[in-house]
Amino acid sequence: MGNDVATLLARHSEALALFTDRVHAVRAGQWDDPTPCTDWSVHDLVNHVTTEQLWVPHLVTDGASIDDVGDAYDGDVLGKRPKTTWDAAARAARKAFAAPGALEQTVELSYGETPAVAYCAQMITDAVVHAWDLSRAIGAQERLPDALVSFALDEVTPYAAELSKSGLFGPPIEPPPGDGHQTRLLALLGRRA
Predict the structure, then answer these.
(1) Which of 6, 55, 135, 153 can pair with 185 through a Cys bridge, CB separation 3.0 to 4.6 Å?
(2) Is residue 143 within 8 Å of residue 135, measured between CB atoms?
(3) Averaged over 112-132, what is the pLDDT?
(4) Which residues contact 128 (CB under 8 A, 6 or more apart)?
(5) Is the pTM of this model over 0.85?
């Protein structure tokens, strides 16, 4: 399991670094701009991914449940310094997952007990896909690293149809024939590249 854990932690760090790069590319006048995520501005998107990272130490390090944390992260968590807030949340999440034994445990998510490795994989995929959303919204480089795209595609393929039922993702669309992994990943999540 050691090598798998090392690979998972590497992908997690890479996904956070990718999203960090895009957050730091947001210009002052872009925070209210729309994103491919229906009803989310750039601020809303970054707030969502930041909130996801803020949960990690509670669930992984503290062994807290969703109920334990409650509504602590409802609403705007970014405040007046969104980039700084993101950086701190990403550092704390990376540290929590990288702690000895962290990925060998079970965490309690909204839908029940989940292996921490599966939770980490979900967080990687979330950061990768939303990095593309943010890139599209702010006019940054939309091409994502192949290793992260392949990881996210492998992760999301088995349950992509279920994601659209959640209302958080659009229904899958048919990608253009012969297109690459990134286009297939985005199409599975209802996005047109």
Answers:
(1) 153
(2) no
(3) 95
(4) 15, 18, 144, 148, 149, 151, 152
(5) yes
Two structure tokens written together for 87: 């950086």
Cα–Cα distance list, 193 to 36, 124, 179, 181, 190 (Å) = 10, 20, 10, 11, 10
Q: How far apart are CA 150 and CA 131, in angstroms?
A: 15
CB under 8 Å to 168, separation ≥6 — which residues? none
Tokens at 167, concatenated: 């209302």
Helices 116-138 and 2-25 cross at an angle (nearest 10°) of 20
pLDDT one-digit tens code per residue, 65-84: 888 998 999 999 999 999 99
Q: Which CATH superfamily includes the segment(s) 2-188?
A: dinb family like domain (1.20.120.450)
What is residue 30's three-state secondary structure? helix
Ordered alpha helix ranges (H), the chain? 2-25, 42-56, 66-69, 82-98, 116-138, 146-156, 160-165, 181-188
Q: Where are the domains of the chain?
A: 2-188
Cα 153 from Cα 149, distance rounded (Å): 6
